Amino acid sequence: MGNDLKRDLSDSELIDSFLKDELSAFEALYERYRKQLYAYLHRLLPGQHALVEDIFQQTWIKVINQLHGYRHNQKFLAWVVRISHNLAIDHFRRTKREGQNDFGNDKNPLLSDEKYEPWKNIDRNELSEALETCIRKLSADQREVFLLRQEDISFKEIAEIQKCSINTALGRMQYAVRNLQKQLSEWNYKRR
Amino acid sequence: MNCEKAKELILSGAESGEKLEAHIASCTGCRNLASAWASLKDIRPATIAEPSRNLDLKIRGAAAAFLDNRKIHHKVFVRRIFMYATAACCVFVTWFALDNIDRQSRAHRNGLVSSGTIHWSNIDMEKDFLELTSELELGIENIYSGSNADSRNEKDVEISIPDLST
C-alpha cells in the first residue's frame, strides 16, 4: 500500500498495520505528527534546542516500542505528548535543575482585569512573536496546558498528562490565558 | 449558568449554547476570557520549527530496526517451539519403549501371562494349536469311552486295540 493511500487511514489503522510489519504505516504516522510534536516541544522548552531534539527522539523510540500497548480509545497525539511529558520530567529530575522549566513548580500567577483583545489590530506575525515571548514567561504547567489546548487536546487528557484533576488543569488554563492577556497588553502599551 | 461552568465550556471549546451566550453577555469576566481565548488559540509562531533530516532518519531507522528485531524474535520463537515439540516427542517415544520393555520383562517372570504377552503376534498360531490339542484330547477320550459320535470329528478313527486279557 502506497504512502498516499496511507494518508487516508486513521491512526489506529496505521498502528495496526505497523504492528503487522508494515514499516510504511509508521512512516505515515510519523509524518502526520512529527511537525506538530516538534513544534510543541520547542514551545514547551523554549531555547533548549538540544533537549528538544533529545526528548523528541526518545519519545518516538518509546512510541515504537510501546505501540502494542496503545489503547485505541485515546487520542494518539495526547498519548505521544504524555510520553514526552514524562521524559521531560525524568530529565529534570535527573539533572535536578530547578526554575522555570521545573514541571513540578507551579507559581501563582497574577490576575489582571485588562481589557480583552488590546492587540486586535496588530500584525499577526508580530503578535505571534510577542505571544511566543509571553508563553515563555508562563510557569511550566500553565505553558503546557495552554500549548496542549492549542493542539486541541481535551482537559481530560491534559489532566492525565499532568497527573492532576481536570479542575486543576482548567484553573491553570484560566491563569495562562489571563497572564498572556496581561503580558500582551503590557507589550502593546510599550510598543506604542 | 455559573461562571465556573461557563469558563469550563469556553476553554474546552464546547459549542456555545443559548445558556452560555446569555451568561457571556451578562458577565464581563467570562466575556473577557472567551474573547482572549478565541483570539489566542489559533496564533502559532510565524516560523514553525521542524525536526532535522538526520533526526527523521534516526527515528525511521529505529522503527525499521524494531520490525527486524521482531522478525528475528519470531523466528527464534518458532524454532524454540519446534525444538521443544521434538524433544517432547523423543521423551514420549523413549518412555513408551522403556515401559513396554519393562512390561515384557515382568511378563517373562510371570509364566502364565508370558505366552499371551510375549508372543502376542503368534496368537493365531496358538489358537490353532490349542484347537488341535483339544480335538486330539477329545478324540482320545472318545476312543477310551468307545464312542466316536462327536459331531466335530467327521473322520472315523480306526484303532485296533489288542486284547490284553488273553
The tally of beta strands of chain B, per DSSP, is: 0
CATH topology of the largest domain in chain A: Rna Polymerase Sigma Factor, Chain: A
Class inferred from helices and paired strands of chain A:
mainly alpha
Rounded to an integer in angstroms, the radius of gyration calculated over CA atoms of chain A is 18 Å
Write the layout of secondary structure elements.
The complex is a heterodimer of chains A (192) and B (166).
Chain A (H helix, E strand, L loop, with lengths): L2 H4 L4 H9 L3 H22 L4 H18 L9 H20 L28 H14 L2 H11 L4 H8 L3 H26 L1
Helix pairs in contact in A: 2-3, 3-4, 4-5, 5-8, 6-9, 7-9, 8-9
Chain B lengths: L2 H9 L6 H9 L1 H13 L12 H57 L1 H8 L4 H23 L21
Helix pairs in contact in B: 1-3, 2-3, 4-5
Describe this structure in words.
The complex is a heterodimer of chains A (192) and B (166). Chain A is built from 9 helices and no strands. Chain A has 192 residues and is an all-alpha fold. In chain A, α2 packs across α3 and α7 crosses α9. Chain B has a domain of 38 residues. The longest helix of chain B has 57 residues. About 3% of the residues of chain B have low confidence. Chain B is built from 6 helices and no strands. By secondary structure, chain B is mostly helical. At the A-B interface, α3, α4, α6 and α9 of A face α1, α3 and α4 of B.
